[in-house]
Specification:
By secondary structure, the protein is of the alpha+beta class. The chain contains two helices and six strands; from the N terminus they run E-H-E-E-E-E-E-H. Strands 1, 2, 3, 4, 5 and 6 form a six-stranded antiparallel beta sheet that branches. Strand 5 and strand 6 form a beta hairpin. The longest helix is centred in the N-terminal third of the chain and has 20 residues. The radius of gyration is 19 Å and the shape is elongated. The N and C termini lie far apart (56 Å).
Length: 164
């Protein structure tokens, strides 16, 4: 399947990987385990940015069918798109394609991540739409202190006021 033939909204292809010798299987092609590790990592980053929380976990990955592969030296790109927001979860769709051959390597229709609270249990995230901004980066990952000069919502020339 050509990437432009995919049904549904377009995916954002933001991550690219170079297939190196350590990524190969005994057949000399891209090892599926390496590819799945890359997808899970990219999906986790996407979930963190969509949910604004660094504590997310993979809950479910639907059926995976490899339809082509990649060779050493090929470049592959991964695309993700949020398809549904649950109370504590985010569901997304993924596609991986070979940039050299332009062929789809695999599509995953459903990857579900769960938002966790400080106690490690599922927690509501409060979002229902995709963000294309960077404003959902968890504060603990930015080093920005809420209310500090230069922080979002800070008063110009002030420290942001007192907090109760």
């Amino acid at each position: 399947m050509e990437p432009d033939d995919a049904a549904g909204p377009p995916l954002n292809f933001r991550t690219r990987k170079w297939v190196r010798p350590e990524d190969l299987n005994a057949n000399g092609t891209l090892f599926g385990g390496s590819l799945l590790r890359w997808i899970d990592e990219e999906a986790a980053i996407y979930a963190i940015l969509q949910l604004g929380n660094g504590q997310v976990v993979t809950k479910y990955i639907s059926e995976i069918e490899f339809v082509s592969s990649a060779q050493q030296g090929d470049l592959v790109e991964m695309g993700l798109l949020a398809t549904a927001f649950g109370r504590t979860s985010l569901t997304m769709r993924a596609e991986v394609r070979n940039m050299i051959t332009r062929r789809s390597i695999l599509t995953i229709e459903r990857i579900v991540f769960v938002n966790l609270g400080p106690d490690g249990q599922p927690a509501p995230h409060g979002y229902s739409t995709i963000t294309y901004d960077r404003d959902r980066i968890p504060r603990h990952m930015t080093g920005v202190v809420p209310g500090a000069p230069g922080a979002p919502g800070a008063v110009a020339g002030g420290g942001g006021g007192e907090r109760s």
